[in-house]
Amino acid sequence: MDIRRLRALGLTDSEARVLASAICLGRAGAKDLALDSGVPYSRIYATLASLLDDGWVHKEEGRPARYYVSDLEARVHRQAEHVEREALRAVEDMRAVAPAEGTALSPTARILHGWDAFFARMGAFLSASPSVMAVFGFGSEQALGRLADLFKTQYVRGKAYVRDDVVAQACARRHISSWGMETRTLPFTPPVWLFVFAGKDILVVVPRDPGVRCTSDEITLLEMRHFVMGPMLERIMAAAHADSQPFAAEDVNHGE
Predict the structure, then answer these.
(1) Do residues 241 and 184 make contact, with C-beta atoms less than 8 angstroms apart?
(2) Phi then psi for 146, rounded to 5 degrees?
(3) Contact, 90 vs 109, CB < 8 A?
(4) Does domain 3-70 bear CATH number 3.90.25.10?
(5) Which of 29, 49, 74, 242 meets the CB 3.0–4.6 Å disulfide criterion with 64?
(6) pLDDT single digits (tens) 132-161
(7) Which CATH class is domain 80-253?
(8) Would you list the domain boundaries of the chain?
(9) Do you find a cis peptide bond into 246, omega within 30 degrees of 0?
């Protein structure tokens, strides 16, 4: 079974693998699901609990308990409707804060998953946009390294704001120091990555678990295009700038 289709419904890689195994095995215990899916047994119960909470699988009590899937088609339809509603709400929220007069909007929004999708869209936006404003609210060594490599291949004009506890990570500081654009640190920002290109195209990276270093399958990406931010973005930028401090390149070796 191609689990990429399951991940497109908002499942993590582990959830998609366990769900695929539950579909193939029918009623099965946690041990069999771990063996079939390749998800470590130490993580199988947490993954099953998440699938149970979201209604993807059901539990049959016993010794051992067994897990099974039913009404899968209806659950997929509900999830697709949920994703569509959330995207439409994002459109309406952005429409509500955009200038009311003199602006013709044709906004679009879509949800993607995984770092590969992010870097594909990031590369496309950097190639087409004259400037970018970025906010980094969580750390990921692998992703920051890939981003640094991407910045090296393209001229990037803009400004980046990085949360203090991200800068405190030695591996993150090394990558940040190579970006080549104005970088400032913030005492607090939500645990997301936010990119605004030319004031109108937006990428938002939301980690499944911001407390750990993310793997390639643990983020959700919201892409919003053709949103004219205008005065609202200027106010946000001014507030962020007032609370920020310059990123000092000499801090790269501090504490190492």
Answers:
(1) yes
(2) -65, -35
(3) yes
(4) no
(5) 29
(6) 888 888 888 788 888 888 887 776 778 888
(7) alpha beta
(8) 3-70, 80-253
(9) no
